[in-house]
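Lab manual, section 2.4: Encoding a predicted structure.

Procedure: take the sequence of the chain (292 residues), apply the prediction step described in section 2.3, and record the output as structure tokens. A sample record is shown.
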Amino acid sequence: MKSHINNYLNNSAMKSIVFEFVNYKHKTEGFMFYELVIFHYKYFGGKRIDIYSVAAAIELLVLVADIYDDLEDRDNHQATWMQYPSSIVLNITSGLLVLIKNILDDVFEDRSLSEMNQLFYSTVQKIIVGQHRDLTNDIQNETDYYEVIRLKSGSLTQIACSLGTLLALNKIPSEIENYSEKIGMIAQMNNDIKSIYNWNRKSDVARKLKTIPILYMLSVGKDNLLSSYINGEITYESLLFQQEKVFNEIEDLGAIHYTNMIIQMLKNEVLEELQLLKMSSNYIDQFTKIAF
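Recorded output:
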């Protein structure tokens, strides 16, 4: 990633900022998407060294998506990119999008270029639509929620798995398309559980975002503090004052258990698709360590 950034940017101040962004992402999230690209490429017998450039491009795409998300939500104040003026950050992320496409064009220029282009542009379109629905809180039920996280999170894991496969095989088996989105959905649902207990950072609760745990609390048909806040019956300050009781209600009424049950169902569906590929247990173990 840093090599491509060095070669693309000729301004030392911009490079320094971008390196800060990359280091922060590595420290806080790791590079799961990079690993997904490499895993699928090697599993399908790929031997080209430029797969590492593809993996770097996908991690940069995820970084860009994270930055846009935080700039628009204005809620992840500890992120490195939130310490700079938004005009500077937007300019840099626009440049990174060009760099990402240049990297992919260079690697795929002699094979599967049209398929790569279709996948890249459809992924960007999905992210934009999903983010719009998220920003407008256009989620009324679980079906809406699954669609939004499929667009925002699932599309990124899908492009990671698909491009690694495409470079190795010149095609993408349907099983890859079927399970790859679910990896991102699982990751998002795990983040939603963490957010329920972490109100002082990126707070889904404060913003009344309807994630699975929150939708569950709205649907249980019993009085609870979280539902009262979402429905506008009490203030956020009142909710904060009774935080321990809120956590107890979430646990006792089964919101976390229900969310974990959905996550496990998705994991089982992913594992079933892996078995359709006749993936050995050794490869499945490697895969699950990356994806889950």
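Check your result against the sample. The chain has two domains: 1-172, 174-292.
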